[in-house]
Amino acid sequence: MAKKQFKAESKRLLDLMINSIYTNKEIFLRELISNASDANDKLHYISLTDETARGETGELFIKVTADKENRTLKISDNGVGMTKEELENNLGTICKSGSLQFKENMTESEEKEAVNIIGQFGVGFYSAFMVCDRLTVISRSYKENEAYEWTSDGADGYTIKTAQKEKVGTDIILHIKDDTEDVKYSEYLETYTLKRLVKTYSDYIRYPIKMDIEKTKEEGEGENKTTVTYTEEETVNSMVPVWKKSKGEQKKEETDRFYKDTFFDFEEPLFTISVAAEGVVSYKALLYIPAKTPYDYYTKEYEKGLKLYSNGVMIMERCGDLVPEHFRFVKGVVDSDDLSLNISREMLQQDAALKTISKNIDKKIHTELKKALDNDREKYETFFKAFGIQLKYGCVAQYGINKDALKDLLLFRSSNQDKLITIDEYIKTMPEDQKHIYYACGETVQKINTLPQSELVKAKGYDMLCLTDEVDEFLMNVLREENGKDFCSINSDNADLLDESEEKKAEETAEANKELLAFVKETLGIEEAVISKKLKTHPVCLSAKGGITLEMEKYFAALPGEDKEKVKAQRVLELNPNHSAFSALSKAFSEDKEKAKTMAEVLYSQALLIAGLPIENPSEYAEKVCSLF
After folding, report:
1. How many CB atoms lie within 10 A of CB 578?
2. Angle at 552 between CA 547 and CA 555, to 5 degrees
3. Could you give the C-alpha distances from 121 to 67, 99, 155, in angstroms and in order?
4. Which residues are paired to 485 by β-bridges?
5. Burial class for 389, CB neighbours closer than 10 Å (0-12, 13-18, 19+)
6. What is the pLDDT of residue 563?
7. Which is nearest to 574 in space by CA: 527, 540, 606, 551?
8. Strands of 283-289's sheet, edge to edge?
9. Are 445 and 477 in contact (CB under 8 A)?
10. Looking at per-residue confidence, does 622 or 96 come out higher?
11. Per-residue model confidence (pLDDT) at position 23
12. How many other C-beta atoms lie within 10 A of the C-beta of residue 504?
């Protein structure tokens, strides 16, 4: 029998596919099962109007059969089947539709990059050659009584001849390659491997995928008791995924079990979000927010993304493009038939459909979280404890492009109320004379509440947001204002905590002590020494001038690398003129400059410690304190 040749472009594509395009050999079974499912779909559709097809339609199924002795793997369907002409057209010419147009002079480097050739092609069938050295297709069309056999050893060509097949449908028979040092092809003949591949990639194909499973049972009694091996046909796929059910049909026990089994979590999810969207882009999604932060969440190993299915077939294990970075903690699945896939189905085009789904999912997650914030505060606070810092980073990222979308989900610890509150809740409790939304950063809420600068805020009856995350200082700079009220650090010179007369008195005191302040500045080598407008009972505090705050300096100091030394705040020592320490410093400045220098250095070290910053030489500091007695 004369062997027919593939067309030149088909030979080149087949070679590229076997050697380059598919990075994961095991997906060949997914492709062949998907083709079988398509064949069943076609027969079902045709049978609605064609009596001939209707007579051939029984229970539609797919069967996977492994024969270790002969090293063959067979995938069978009882779908539409193919005529001789259809075998010639569908299998003899890859990409017959012409979607793929090779350049006349494709370079070798371009061939290596063939993975980037995009389009919807019927080439998944040829992925079988990754694991087999001979491929046979026996098919009988519902339109004919004659069956035909198509056989190929690869790019060299193929043959077609008549065959015997009792029922309508198609059998695809792979002769599995011999094992090599690098690849154990025999694993594709093992029942447990095939079941795993079906569960991983094709679990939600709508037709039963059947396999003959070898089992054992005990027969007889006593000494005559023996173990008998027998074979039983089983359906190994679930067929109807939970996310394809309507929201009313989805039971909590079912969705929770799917989450635990799929994402390997022992705890139930905190939130479950079911989506069924129809329109220009139709899709279904089942999304989960974990109850706790995953152990690897803040490591490089953690990968964001949702499982992506197309018509029940898993396309990607993690599609990062479906979920924004600020919601990277969300797990789940998305299933849509409206996506453009590349040749191997392993990657997606960045097309409008994908972007639409991603945008809608972003909005849906936000809506559900806001609903929980408004209606189930305790549950939301549990969520925020685990993932609130991610929302904060989301506000800061990309120069604050997402801050307006996320700020209504943020919670902060209130100093007055000693609980988590939203920005709007803070504003609603503000006295009429309060000009700013006050905040303070520190290691803990307790330390923040004991800061010298906080006394005057509290004395005015104003609330203060206590911020303890390293990103908080940057967050405040990004948020800037809300409802006409700006966010103001209690360290800021613009805190407006003094009335007009107090402001005037502070200015007069500064003028009267300008020589002392200049002395302190020069002695310490700092940006400035000033009369404080924030202190009430404490002698000193430290603040910063310019764009870099003390908290920012701490953040950069904690980062690895040498450049962190370059990020320093312009330090300002603030002195309380009403404290006895200032009186003592002023007296020493008039009578004993060396003693005044020591006192300035001690006060500065105290300010550093209060601010949570290190002092260079603790022993020297202790000696200077003792020398003042």
Report:
1. 14
2. 160
3. 30, 7, 18
4. 482
5. middle
6. 60
7. 540
8. 271-277, 283-289, 331-335, 306-310, 313-319
9. no
10. 622
11. 61
12. 11
Q: Which tens digit of pLDDT belongs to each residue from 320-356?
A: 999 999 999 999 999 988 876 554 444 555 578 888 9
568-590 confidence digits (pLDDT tens): 899 999 999 999 999 999 999 99
- Tokens 């492009």 found at: 401
Q: Which two tokens stand for residue 561?
A: 């690398």
Instruction: Return the amino acid letter for 480.
Output: R
Q: Give residue for tokens 């189905």.
A: 345
Is 469:389 a contact under the CB 8 Å cutoff? Answer: yes
Q: What share of the chain is helix, strand, coil (3-state, %, to 5)?
A: 40, 20, 35
CB atoms within 10 A of CB 340: 14
Residue 373 CB contacts under 8 Å (≥ 6 apart), including other chains: 380, 408, 409, 422
Task: Assign residue 71 a region (left: φ > 0; alpha: ψ between -120 and 50; beta: otherwise).
Answer: left
First to last CA, the chain: 112
Q: CA–CA separation, 443 vs 466, rounded Å? A: 10
122 vs 281, higher pLDDT: 281
16 pLDDT above the threshold of 90: no
Give me the pLDDT at residue 99, please.
29
Where residue 488 falls among pLDDT bands split at 50, 70, 90?
Answer: very high
> Which DSSP letter does residue 20 get?
I
Return the pLDDT at 104: 36
Torsion sign (Cα): 317, 323, 329, 334: negative
Tell me the C-alpha distance between 66 and 84, whole Å: 26
Render pLDDT for 529-545 as a digit per residue (tens, 0 to 9).
Answer: 999 998 999 999 999 98
pLDDT in tens, 453-484: 999 999 999 999 999 999 999 999 999 999 99
The DSSP string of 342-411 is BTTSSSB---HHHHHHHHHHHHHHHHHHHHHHHH-HHHHHHHHHHHHHHHHHHHHHHHHTTHHHHGGG--
Q: How far is CA 141 from CA 80, 404, 559, in A?
A: 6, 59, 68
Cα–Cα separations (whole angstroms), residue 470 to 404, 407, 447, 610 = 21, 17, 15, 18
Q: Encode 48-62: b = buried (16+ Cβ within 10 Å), e = exposed.
A: eeeeebeebbeebbb
Maximum CA pair distance of the chain?
A: 118
Tens-place pLDDT, residues 179-230: 999 889 999 999 999 999 999 888 888 899 999 998 888 888 877 888 888 8
Between 73 and 506, residue with greater pLDDT: 73
Residues 6+ apart with CB under 8 A from 184: none
Q: What is the mean pLDDT of residues 37-66?
A: 84
Residue 515: partners with Cβ closer than 8 Å, 6 or more residues away: 589
Give yes or no for a contact between 456 and 496, defined as CB atoms under 8 angstroms apart.
no
Assess contact for 314 and 288: CB atoms under 8 A.
no
Looking at this protein, which amino acid is placed at residue 533?
A: K
Calpha distance 264→331 (Å, rounded): 11
SS3 319: strand
Unique residue bearing structure tokens 């200077």: 624
Q: Which two three-digit tokens encode residue 317?
A: 């294990």
